[in-house]
Each structure stands twice: as structure tokens, then as C-alpha cells.
Write a structure and sequence with these properties.
With 123 residues, the protein is of the alpha+beta class. The chain folds into two domains: 59 residues, no CATH class; 63 residues, no CATH class. 39% of the residues lie in helices and 24% in strands. The chain has six helices and six strands; from the N terminus they run ββββββαααααα. The strands form two sheets. Strands 1-6-5 form a three-stranded antiparallel beta sheet. A three-stranded antiparallel beta sheet has the order 2-3-4, covered by helices on one side. A hairpin with a 2-residue loop joins β5 and β6. α3 runs antiparallel to α5. The radius of gyration is 19 Å and the shape is elongated. The model has no long low-confidence stretch (mean pLDDT 85).
Amino acid sequence: MDEGKKREKRIQVNAVERRGKSVVVEYVKGGVPNRKVVYMSKFADVSVEEGALERAPDYGVRWADALKGSEVLTEKGKEELEAQMRQRGIWTADDLRRAAREYPVVLVSLHREDTKAMIEGGK
């Protein structure tokens, strides 16, 4: 190895799906699952170089972006929605259709305090 070149940090990932010369990988950052599409040549020993991972395109719908303009959820709420959807494996519109029963659970969890107040106020 050239002494002038530093070895780049590698991030542990799980391969989710192979797509031709690419692979969808999943990793956790800040407690939230993330998915990226990386070239197979960048994927080795269940890890990817940090720089290659940062440059790779995201996989799935950015649920927070899909809700831009919505006044129902705050920006923080939209980020929480995205995290909850990811944790439940809902990355794409097809995933959402297959797991339609999960979506109300996500919404209730986002409004946990409101729901609790309504239940207690209705006694």
C-alpha cells in the first residue's frame, strides 16, 4: 500500500438485494436504518468504504420529502415518520401497499401523546 494513501474507513452493511452490477445495502446510522445502492465492486466482506457509501444513491422513498407541504406533521414529525417506516421495512410504494396495516400504527405512534391525552380526556 502506498504510504501517502490512507485506508478509508469501512462501514458494516447487510446486503438486501442484488440488482445487476449493484447491490442494495442496509446499515444503521443514528439508530435509523438506511439503504443505499452500491456497485458490487465497492461491496466486500459485508462492508463498504465510507466515501463510496456517502456517494451512493439512496434506496426507497424519502417519506419526509413526500410529505413536503403537509401541515399535519412538523418537520420533526416527518423525520420520525420516515424513521418508523424504515424500521418497519417500508422503503418503497410497493412496500407500503404490502404493509398497509403498518401505516396506521406508524401514525398513532407519531401522535402518541395526543392519543394518550384524548383517551384520558374522554374518561
